[in-house]
Structures are given as C-alpha cells and as structure tokens.
Amino acid sequence: MNVMRFTARKGWITNFSGNSLSISTSFLHRYLLPRQDLLFKRVRRSDATCAKIVDKIVDKRTKTSASLKALSNALRDILNEQCVSRQTFDDVARTFIRQARDQVELEEQRLFPIARTVLSTEDWADLHLKLRDETLSLRNRNLKGRLRDDFRRIVREGAEDRAERSRLTQAGD
After folding, report:
1. Domain residue ranges in the chain
2. Which of 87, 90, 107, 162 is the most buried (most CB within 10 A)?
C-alpha cells in the first residue's frame, strides 16, 4: 500500500499545503461567502426559478465545504504523522476539486447571467455599498493582516526547510 507519511522537516511542502489550505479556508469563510450571501439574497427574492438556482448553489457550496474539510483533515493527519493511503488522499482531493469546479460552473453558467437580468441598477448600487461596508468591517477585523502573516510564515518555513536540507546534504558529504 502506498502510504503518505511526512515529518515536519521532510514534509515542508505538506506544511506549505496545509497552511495554504488554512489561508484559503479563512478567505472563503470570512470574505467570499458573506459577499455571495448578499448577492444570493437579492437574486433569491426575484422569483421562484432564481430561488431554486440559488438553493442548488448553496447545496453545492455545503458539499464543497464538507469536502474541503475532509481534505484539510487528511492534510492534518499527514502533518501529525498518521498513515494516510495515497488513494485515500487522492480521492479526497479529487472530490474537493470536482465539487468546487461544479459549483463555479453553476455560478458562472446559471447564477451570474440571471443576476445581470433580474437585479436592478438600485440593487447593484445597494450591493456595492454593502460590500464596501463589509470590506471596511473585514479590515477592522484585520483579515488582510492575518492572511499576510500566514503567507510570511509559509515563506519562512520553506526557507528554514531548504536551509536544513542544505545543511544535511553538506553534512552527508
């Protein structure tokens, strides 16, 4: 059985992946989803067909979120030096990718064209104001700072790992 097992030092790419996943999850839940919800609320109000499309997207979003959590758990297990079969990890990653692509496709092909049609100029102006207010609120909660700090940590850990590998290579010669 092909098993993925990494240590903190040897698996810096896995650490990088785990941190990247953490940043992506933070961005998704703190920034993107609240913005989508504002748009969904407006579109859902327009008519029953639009409401069904929004409900379908929300259902897909829930499934995508669950598969992202499963991927995060698999990476966490690897980082904690648990044995995870390559097949299990690949299946979890592929499921997340497929579900995320399906969700984006549904949004692009169904939701956005309908939103352009059913929302009025006043709706768009109101959304713009609310999104601007939400952006200001996010700045107050320092999301950008947290994301920047996470990125710096990822870069630092990668540099430390490369230095450690170089040191070990030189010591082995």
Report:
1. 10-164
2. 107
- Name the β-bridge partners of 3: 85
Radius of gyration of the chain (CA): 21
Q: Please report where in the chains the tokens 């993925």 appear, as a residue.
A: 4
Beta bridge mates, 84: 4
Helix (H, G, I), strand (E, B) or coil at 96: helix
Tokens 């709706």 correspond to 123
Q: So what's the pLDDT on residue 8?
A: 40
pLDDT band at 9 (very low <50, low <70, confident <90, very high): very low
pLDDT tens-digit readout, 52-104: 999 999 999 999 989 988 988 888 887 777 888 888 889 999 999 999 999 99
168: number of CA atoms within 13 Å, CB side? 8
Tell me the two tokens of residue 76: 């966490």
On whether the pTM is more than 0.70, the answer is: no
For the stretch 19-34, pLDDT in tens is 677 777 777 777 788 8
| Beta bridge partner(s), residue 85 | 3
Non-local (6+) Cβ contacts of 161 within 8 A are 9, 12, 15
Query: Kind and range of the H or E element at 34?
Result: helix 33-46
Has residue 109 got a pLDDT over 70? yes
